[in-house]
Amino acid sequence: MHNVAITGTGVFTPSETITNDELVASFNAYADLYNAENAAQIAAGELEAKPQSSADFIFAASGIERRYVLNKSGVLDPTRMFPKLAQRDDETPGYMAEIGVDACKKALDSAGLDASQIDLVICAASNMERAYPAIAVEIQALLGANGFAFDMNVACSSATFGIQTASDMIKSGSIGRAIVVNPEICSAHLEWRDRDCHFIFGDVATATILERDEDLIAPHFKVKSTRCATQFSNNIRNNNGYLRRTHDATVDRRDMQFMQNGRKVFKEVLPLVSKHIADHMEAEGVQASDLKRLWLHQANKSMNDYIGKRVLGRDPEGGEQPNILQDYANTSSAGSIIAFAQNSADLNKGDTGLICAFGAGYSVGSVIVEKG
Q: Which residues are catalytic?
């Protein structure tokens, strides 16, 4: 058996942002158009009028202030309200591969490695651009990596499930190094015309390098333990799964985009995640006082505050549980990795931290790490 370490991370951030004020102006213009076009049916009680949104409502509900997106103009067009991402020809790298390669190259630079030294690429994300060939194999080819590659989807937990999968292969000796890459084009599966969720998601890609913990000199994080769990629920669901609607405006079924019963999710997921983390820590002999950092899934600030308090037994102090929601919004599986990548360099050798992601499924994955 081999020990495993995280030796590098990379984050691709799109160049375009949408602030809450910009998003609200667009949404409210859409709502006005909808209400005017359907005035007779609304007056007759056959349709409900679209309510207005506000920046204050968004921030209070989520802690989000802005989000990065691959295409801003399509989202903010009140007559469209979804990104303009044209179908690419088969000889052009896909969107997920393009942003995933960017994150992978940054992670390789961070780890001081060349792509030819990689044995496995896992593309772990909440939505895939196509069914096959695998996005991971395309990324592998574009990078010039060796070995093999495959896709996996465990919704917002995909990154942590991918880390466990790669770690187990490294421990067994079947591979020496792996990249887990999370290209999340969440703007393509969000229903921007729904006031209850139109503000939630942003786009990003992250990558994590894992390798055998043998004679490592540069700073790294030892993977001490991983744990994953799932429990079926329909309370977060998407019946489409691919990026079809970004180029085909005729696909307009509400259930083909992100759907969530927020109250049930909050009520059911928080105890599930808190217990999962507590059980994982107990099994590994890790006390709350041992944790220097919690890198949680970036779904909602209130959810993270609740989990942090349950895990630590008190309100988290400044820096103990970093949030990136205010800048990135919910980026599905990539969120906890952004938090880790941007808020881990300051830890000292021997410090313990925990990465946790959770979401549709329900699913939850946690990784206990120690600064090496």
A: 156
